[in-house]
């Protein structure tokens, strides 16, 4: 069947075809785990999806709200998959804001890829010894 002939598609197939999940089993697990809501309600993987339904999809830290604009049971390339839905403006703004907050939160953390060298170890030991003497 082509995209125009379909009137309803299982939600797990659609999520796979729209490239939200790599496999149908991952889509099913997400639906069963409550990560996918249709029009604000939890659903089963066998739920028939129709045009203009609102989906809320949670993937890790990211939550997307999309409107179904096309139906397909076949997985195709990413440009074609992007035509199956449109993300709401509020969802995009919220995702961008959360990304900025996560990035800002990580700026204060220094990530050292190496162990301290001999000089740095001596400084650490000196600092610890001085602070332990002051506490007594």
UniProtKB/TrEMBL annotation:
Pfam families (UniProt xref): S4
GO biological process, one term: cellular response to heat
Top-level taxon of the source organism: Bacteria
Keywords: DNA-binding, RNA-binding, Stress response
Keyword Transport applies: no
Homology family: Belongs to the HSP15 family.
Protein name as catalogued: Heat shock protein 15
